[in-house]
Description:
Elements: E1 21-29, E2 35-36, E3 40-45, E4 49-55, E5 63-72, E6 75-83, E7 92-98, E8 101-106, E9 112-119, E10 124-128, E11 132-137, E12 140-147, E13 150-159, E14 162-168
Antiparallel strand pairs: 1-2, 1-3, 1-9, 3-4, 4-5, 5-6, 6-7, 7-8, 8-9, 10-11, 11-12, 12-13, 13-14
Amino acid sequence: xxxxxxxxxxxxxxxxxxxxxxxxxxxxxxxxxxxxxxxxxxxxxxxxxxxxxxxxxxxxxxxxxxxxxxxxxxxxxxxxxxxxxxxxxxxxxxxxxxxxxxxxxxxxxxxxxxxxxxxxxxxxxxxxxxxxxxxxxxxxxxxxxxxxxxxxxxxxxxxxxxxxxxxxxxxxxxxxxxxxxxxxxxxxxx
Length: 190
């Protein structure tokens, strides 16, 4: 059998409007036939930047990553400039949307993810550097940063006195209020 490798002409143009927002994963169907419906998985996609947080119920295999999305038609490629658990594998999928449900089919691994558009507020990028990306959609904020060899991806919600971390790759941060410096870019080489 001959395998044909297709070259995709990726574009760094603004991400299609239908892909932007706060997405909550409903289900993952892996290539080995297993499924995951219990992990907390949140992804905020803005015009260009994104942050993705994945916390299994038992917290084993927690992941967080952030960067920029390239696209070609319905195909998406997530460029991970911040990655708390790098795999070295390309992160590319085919996306289709029907109303508030988006389906992602892996291009290199035959997984299927189903996503729910959790918040329809216009997403925005608050910080975008090589070591710190913060994106927001409505009352939800996802922050990714690396500092002093520590990688953090956290989900915060707006409360009366600021932004409170609800979920994080660093469990010790959960429940904490974000300080002003948490929303500022970190210095290079930190």
